[in-house]
Amino acid sequence: MDAFMRAAIEEARQGFAEGGIPIGSVIVHQGRIIGRGHNRRVQKGSAILHGEMDAFENAGRQPAQVYREAVLYTTLSPCPMCSGAILLYGIPRVVVGENQTFLGEEALLRSRGVEVEVLQDPECVALMHRFIAERPELWNEDIGVPS
User: Is the pLDDT of residue 37 over 80?
Assistant: First the structure.
């Protein structure tokens, strides 16, 4: 498995171990991780700290050119909010662990010229299935489904 997707999965597992939602992400520039994160909405009481947003936050301020040369890895298909950040910063390529449990805004990203690669990684799928089975109310909250 790609070392960068492995790092995103490690982030997802960390989030799960912390009692949060197991979605992880890393941002890679020139073969080096510049930002990594996991969904920390529960841990931080945040409305917006999805895995991708946490990775952007942890990357800190970067020149626009860095983002335009970067690849974002995420264990789950990006939601509308995270897809907006990907478009805002001009990330040209996104590698998605899986989109079976949640299909985000991949069509939007592709329509705006972003290369989206979906791996359908069994580990990503299994982790999300386990989480959804154990914490359906938290999952619905995260994706904005009314209870």
Answer: yes
Taken in order 27, 29, 31, 33, the sign of the CA dihedral is negative
The tens digit of pLDDT for each residue in 76-102 reads 999 999 999 999 999 999 999 999 999
Residue 10 is a catalytic residue: no
Dig out the tokens for 15 from the structure. 């989030």
Q: How far apart are CA 103 and CA 83, in angstroms?
A: 12
Nearest to 25 by CA among 142, 17, 13: 13
Helix (H) or strand (E) holding 73: strand 70-74
Q: Which of 10, 18, 52, 105 is catalytic?
A: 52
pLDDT at 1 over 70: no
